[in-house]
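Much of what follows relies on a compact textual record of a protein's fold. The record below shows the convention in full:
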Amino acid sequence: MNFSTNNDYSFLFGGSSGQNDNTGFSLNDYMSIKNGSYGKLMKAYYKEQNSDGKTAAEVKKETQSKGVEYSEIASLADKFETAAGKLSSTGLFDLKSVTSTDENGFETTTEEYDKDSIVSALKDVAKTYNEFLSKATKSTNKNVARRAENLVGQMTNYMKQLSGVGVKFSDDGTISIDEDKVRNTDIGALKRAFAGKDSMFGQLASKASQIGTAATSAANNLKGYNKSAKYASDATTIGNLLNDQA
């Protein structure tokens, strides 16, 4: 008897809807058997060694850990980008009308730069930058870690200019703000360093955004992982098999 391998046998598994039929077997399961992934899961389920030498429970734990890590890096990238965006806002470096009253009750209005707000925004950028880099440079994803190291290198290239406007660099790559130096720095120099998307911090924020995207992509590429740090079962017995192993 001859069989054609080109025939479509999907009707045997309840059609192409992907839903389980009365036998508890779906087309999704059939396709998983066909591509070999089902066999690997079964070996792990029975505590046999798979090609990576890990059981299903170990794979699940590792996947969940990486998913949480990548999601956290993406979130920290967003925070840094937001802080840098507030700093680079040109309005932060505009003259403000400041009214003061002397001891005799006379009011005087002058045009001044709000150095307090600039310092506050800079401190927020430094805080979020340090938190982001501490995670991203240690990422288990090589692409994310490499991009983060490149960002540190770019920051180092700006060291001389940034040090001149009140940004201090530590040996571990973190930064802090010299408030007195910022307050005593010419507003033109501060604008060149921090105002606008083309400023030094504006460019760094753009790089951080790309790293955050890479981290999100890495999380999405983890097989079966979802944002709840669980395997998505999609109503298949394979997904349930994984979720039972922990």
